[in-house]
Amino acid sequence: MDRVDAVTENLPAVFAGVVFLLFGGCLLVWTCVRLALGAPVAEGARTGTAAALALLFSVGSLGLGFWCFGRI
Predict the structure, then answer these.
(1) What is the pLDDT of residue 5?
(2) Within its chain, how far is the Cα of 30 from the centroid?
(3) How far, CA to CA in Å, does 72 sit from each of 5, 59, 63?
(4) Tens digit of each residue's pLDDT (9 = 90 or more) over 23-49
């Protein structure tokens, strides 16, 4: 396999990894800031439930991003 084929085969994994890492990181920071300010994490939901779900999805997204980069 030449260099061009390797780049074109890895490009979707890099793109997906970056998207997952950006989403997970931003969601994690946003959730922590909302909790630190005492503001609701989600409108109309319990703070504990909304924070737990947001943290779960942010950690899951970060894990998927690192997994995508590990597959390269």
Answers:
(1) 65
(2) 12
(3) 13, 21, 15
(4) 999 999 999 999 999 999 989 889 899
Instruction: Report in angstroms the alpha-carbon separations of 21 from 3, 10, 13, 60.
Output: 26, 16, 12, 10
Residue 37 token pair: 């300010």
Contact 30, 37 (CB under 8 A): no
User: Of all helices (H) and strands (E), which one includes residue 44?
Assistant: none
- One-letter amino acid for residue 36 of the chain: A
- Single-letter amino acid code for the residue at 59: V
Give CA angle at 19 (15, 25), nearest 5°: 145
